[in-house]
Amino acid sequence: MTLTNTAAPAATTYDYCTVDVPRGKDALYADTYRNFGWTSDGSDRTGALNRRRTLGLRRDRAVRSVELTELQQNAETALATIDALERSRTTAASVVAYALGAIGSVLLAASVFAMQDTVAVPDLLGGLHPVTVFLVGAGGLVNWAIAPVAFQLVRAARTKRIRPAVDRQFDVVYGACEAASRRRTA
């Protein structure tokens, strides 16, 4: 009679998490989390109106440690800072462009109302010379025209100004990933 080993293989238990990722940064986040022992669990989702994507991740529970968790938190904080800095480029530029557009709208509306005889116009606009009214309207159109140019200029200036901070945050992410990789292989 022969004896066979009928013992079942040891069960593997996993930790699961989901991560919201800005579009276009999927590879960066996947590579970062891979260094901390996370792999995709196949439940990635993209929101239709959202500019973010949700990655589903899993990791063998045997991998976790306090040091690894701290390194992962450092990397997550740096990734969130990078995302916030990159969004600030367009936010600042949008504020300037919208302000110029709003000022242009006010100037153009003021010139139109100043030319109307049937509308009760405040004393400030009433009785203006037609050339002055024309110049106020032209100023509104000029504000509208320079808003997109101002958007591009402000975004370019903001990009140049935040680039060193973004690079420092990438260094934090890479450092945490290297330390986690060494920790996991040791």
Description:
This protein is of the alpha+beta class and 186 residues long. Strands 1, 2, 3 and 4 form a four-stranded antiparallel sheet that branches. Strand 3 and strand 4 form a beta hairpin. The two termini are 44 Å apart.
Topology readout:
Layout: E1 14-22, H1 26-35, E2 39-40, E3 45-46, E4 52-60, H2 66-115, H3 130-185
Antiparallel strand pairs: 1-4, 2-4, 3-4
Helix pairs in contact: 2-3
Strand fraction: 5-15%
State mean pLDDT (0 to 100 scale). 84
Order of helices and strands: EHEEEHH
The total of helices stands at 3
Rg, alpha carbons: 29 Å
Concise overview:
The protein has helices spanning 26-35, 66-115, 130-185, and strands at 14-22, 39-40, 45-46, 52-60. The chain is α+β, with helices and mostly antiparallel strands and 186 residues long. Strand 3 (45-46) and strand 4 form a beta hairpin.
